[in-house]
Amino acid sequence: MYSGAAAAAGPPRRDFISVTLGPEEAIGVGGYNNSKAWRRRSCWRKWKQLSRLQRSVILFLFAFLAVCGVISYTSMGEAWKSITNKSLDEQRTEQEIPGLKLANPAVLPAPQKADANHGDYPELSLQKPPKPPHVRRGPSNLQIKAPRRDMRLKTRHDTIRAVEELVEADKVEKTEKSIISWRGAVIEPDQSTEPPSSKIKEPEKPSSMEAEDQKEPVPVNERQLAVIEAFRHAWKGYKEFAWGHDELKPLSKSYSEWFGLGLTLIDALDTMWIFGLKEEFEEARKWVANDLVFDKNVDVNLFESTIRILGGLLSTYHLSGDSLFLEKAKDIGNRLMPAFKTPSKIPYSDVNIGRGTAHPPRWTSDSTVAEVTSIQLEFRELSRLTGDEKFKKAVDEVMKHVHTLSGKNDGLVPMFINTNSGQFTHLGVYTLGARADSYYEYLLKQWIQGGKKENELLEDYMRAIEGVKKHLLQRSEPKKLTFVGELAHGHFSAKMDHLVCFLPGTLALGAHNGLAADHMKLAEALIETCYQMYAQVETGLSPEIVHFNLHAQKGHKDVEIKPADRHNLLRPETVESLFYMYRFTGDKKYQDWGWEILQNFNRYTRVPTGGYTSINNVQNPSNPEPRDKMESFFLGETLKYMFLLFSDDIDLINLDKYIFNTEAHPLPIWVPA
Ligand code: DMJ
């Protein structure tokens, strides 16, 4: 069908159409013409000469080939991307934890829709978590790394000393041959978790194994360095005079024993990990491996040993990935279980961990409400890690039972519960302070831990906050500070424990997780009050309890302090709440307030030979009357929250992935946001 020459040569073949070409187009005449224009015209003619059916078939074939081409291009691109990404991740992980493959199953259950069940509670409308305005998404700092020295260092004596020590630590790091890699420094790769015989499902892996956490840490800043320096000073005293014992007595250069289980050391493990104190962590780890024995004829308090020991071991396991800590956590968890063998299943306050017996205090068969309802995060996590449901069942039963109890006042609970009858006792007294505080905290935190599905917990929490607003909130004079008082048989008392200062942080956490926006407003008002409990006092440190003035009186501040209440135990609640408030608002004033508090701890509670001490009199700067005791929560909580408060890295214990227990030990959220 193409050539004029052929056409000229004789009759056209049957299946060709004869075409008469002009002279310039005839090959024979005009010579070989292969110009683009000619070819285009020729093709077009050929196309026009096809039948309609032929054209349709060709068009269809073209379309079909084009579609196939697009599909195979996309899927090959994806495959190529995943091949290259995977090999990079694998290389990185292999360098950090030899033998660890990314093929490991996901650590936590697959994410679910956070608001899946909210239909049941129309009044509890959830908001979208607000994005913190100030923070960039930075790398996770869960890997231990010595803080970098390329920071802007200032002239403050403390800071310089801290840096010198850190340089020293760097040197030690380089010579430590026993370390596999820092993240895996203490991981013995062959150890595996051995689920107990009553195993019901596969145990979970530690959250540190998440690929997402394998990022470069953000360098610490000057304020964080000052916290590290404070920690090192406290640790120096503990190491020298109280190693392996419960608490340091820094003035008498000795120690005190509560359970005889190295409380301070265990409480401080994850703090050291987060601060990047490798050498100290390694030494403490050795003590846990060789000297921490739970098979002891000793009575321990169920709540205190759960939040400090079980909580501390579990979080250290998560951060370090070292199965030693899980093994120890399982051991203590099992030894605490006899506490739940009561007629009502409300646990006894005390357990003999060597004998396997439990009992209430000598003078009563009551337990404290906050104690029996603030062990759940830890036991539930132990079940998830071991695959053994018995821990979770025991503590969930307590919550379910308390949910149904009468004797509450608009969601506010009394302070005692009887282990025989399972009923509240001493009805009519309501506080957010001692003996009730962490009941409220754990309602919200369990709800978050479990993926926001356990509606009874949320319901109880929301009711309780309404109860607080209705019965316990008042304003002081002259500054009109919002505070949380107490109610005793219908009488309001303007007394507030420092312990109540956990509440602004908890309210802010709830608001961040979609609860009512007015919770955040209340949090803002309350944290201001908690700060004033420090700022209005002569030493700049809060007493254990304050009384607020309800009526303006000339020469009187908002805060009054009774002689019996003017001690300070180095408690964490205010800095804890400052940390949450800064994370969620980015308002630097919270960091500045925390900085003031740290300086006042340094001024009035620091013991030159090592350690910090509780004091008896926050109103006397010239003699604050040191008590000679450093509580374990100063290292476990107070300094940890300070360090986190001064950080701008939201991935340094990301609050959408971790929930802090009431002793500041971070545990993974099962269904992270
Ligand atoms: C800690 O043991 C815990 O924070 C507990 O919830 C309350 N008491 C101390 C700190 O003040």
Automatic annotation (TrEMBL):
EC number: 3.2.1.-
Pathway it works in: Protein modification; protein glycosylation
Catalytic activity reported: N(4)-(alpha-D-Man-(1->2)-alpha-D-Man-(1->2)-alpha-D-Man-(1->3)-[alpha-D-Man-(1->2)-alpha-D-Man-(1->3)-[alpha-D-Man-(1->2)-alpha-D-Man-(1->6)]-alpha-D-Man-(1->6)]-beta-D-Man-(1->4)-beta-D-GlcNAc-(1->4)-beta-D-GlcNAc)-L-asparaginyl-[protein] (N-glucan mannose isomer 9A1,2,3B1,2,3) + 4 H2O = N(4)-(alpha-D-Man-(1->3)-[alpha-D-Man-(1->3)-[alpha-D-Man-(1->6)]-alpha-D-Man-(1->6)]-beta-D-Man-(1->4)-beta-D-GlcNAc-(1->4)-beta-D-GlcNAc)-L-asparaginyl-[protein] (N-glucan mannose isomer 5A1,2) + 4 beta-D-mannose; N(4)-(alpha-D-Man-(1->2)-alpha-D-Man-(1->2)-alpha-D-Man-(1->3)-[alpha-D-Man-(1->3)-[alpha-D-Man-(1->2)-alpha-D-Man-(1->6)]-alpha-D-Man-(1->6)]-beta-D-Man-(1->4)-beta-D-GlcNAc-(1->4)-beta-D-GlcNAc)-L-asparaginyl-[protein] (N-glucan mannose isomer 8A1,2,3B1,3) + 3 H2O = N(4)-(alpha-D-Man-(1->3)-[alpha-D-Man-(1->3)-[alpha-D-Man-(1->6)]-alpha-D-Man-(1->6)]-beta-D-Man-(1->4)-beta-D-GlcNAc-(1->4)-beta-D-GlcNAc)-L-asparaginyl-[protein] (N-glucan mannose isomer 5A1,2) + 3 beta-D-mannose
Pfam families, alphabetized: Glyco_hydro_47 (PF01532)
Enzyme superclass (EC): hydrolase
GO biological process: carbohydrate metabolic process; ERAD pathway
Role summary: Involved in glycoprotein quality control targeting of misfolded glycoproteins for degradation. It primarily trims a single alpha-1,2-linked mannose residue from Man(9)GlcNAc(2) to produce Man(8)GlcNAc(2), but at high enzyme concentrations, as found in the ER quality control compartment (ERQC), it further trims the carbohydrates to Man(5-6)GlcNAc(2).
Superkingdom field: Eukaryota
Active site: residue positions: 304, 437, 544, 573
Name of the protein: alpha-1,2-Mannosidase
